[in-house]
Amino acid sequence: MVEPMQTLAGRRPCGRERLWKAPACRSVAVLPFRCPRCGESTRFRSLTALRTHLQFSHTFSTPPVSRAPPISMPPSPEDDRPAFLELHPAPTPLTTAAKAHPPPSPLDHTYGGVSMEAGLQVRLWVALKRAEQQLQSEHAQCPLLLEEQHRLSRQVHSAAMVIASLRQQLATSQHQLKQRESEVLGMQSWLALAAQHEMCSKETLRSFIETLLQRLHVAESCANRRP
């Protein structure tokens, strides 16, 4: 949680007002960490609160504010005296030079590290957003891919059915071819047997004709010998 912002007063309280508001000024001055983007108007008690404020309240496009004067020290117990006892010493050259050239704050390096860490976190968040968008686009393409897969599955199923029918037709054609080959072989064997029977019949008929001719010749010979 981001701690509430504290606002530094621009004037110095006097008298009875200082007596009532001294604890509040001390609590404001105790806060050591200021926002490099908001300036002195925003201070935090810990680096965690400052880091959270930078992460959720500022981006890279937020222009940084100008360097603010150094942190004012809490008022001493001597400042709690009444207003009529307060003395206003004249400013010396040493105090004027110190105000003109304040010493560098030791927290500037801390602010730079916090800003770099916040930048890394923002870059990581941007990379995660890009990955999420890519996943969403791929998830949006999933129905199209599923539809394409179903279409290809239907085409493969149809091709498988066609191949199965062609295989069945090929098996039937092979069976018919084998049956016709067996019929042709049977016809060839029958024709060979018929040719053999025909040759035997011819041979028998020729021998019968020769025997008949011989008998006829013998009969004619006998008839010529008789007176």
UniProtKB/TrEMBL annotation:
Keywords: Coiled coil, Phosphoprotein. GO terms for biological process: regulation of DNA strand resection involved in replication fork processing; regulation of double-strand break repair via homologous recombination; regulation of neuron projection development; telomere maintenance. The keyword Phosphoprotein applies. Pfam families: zf-C2H2_FBX41 (PF23165). The keyword Coiled coil applies. Residues 61-88 are annotated as: Disordered. Residues 31-60 form the FBX41/ZN365 C2H2-type zinc finger domain. PANTHER family: PROTEIN ZNF365 (PTHR15739:SF2), ZINC FINGER PROTEIN (PTHR15739). This is FBX41/ZN365 C2H2-type zinc finger domain-containing protein. It comes from Alosa alosa. The lineage of its organism: Eukaryota, Metazoa, Chordata, Craniata, Vertebrata.
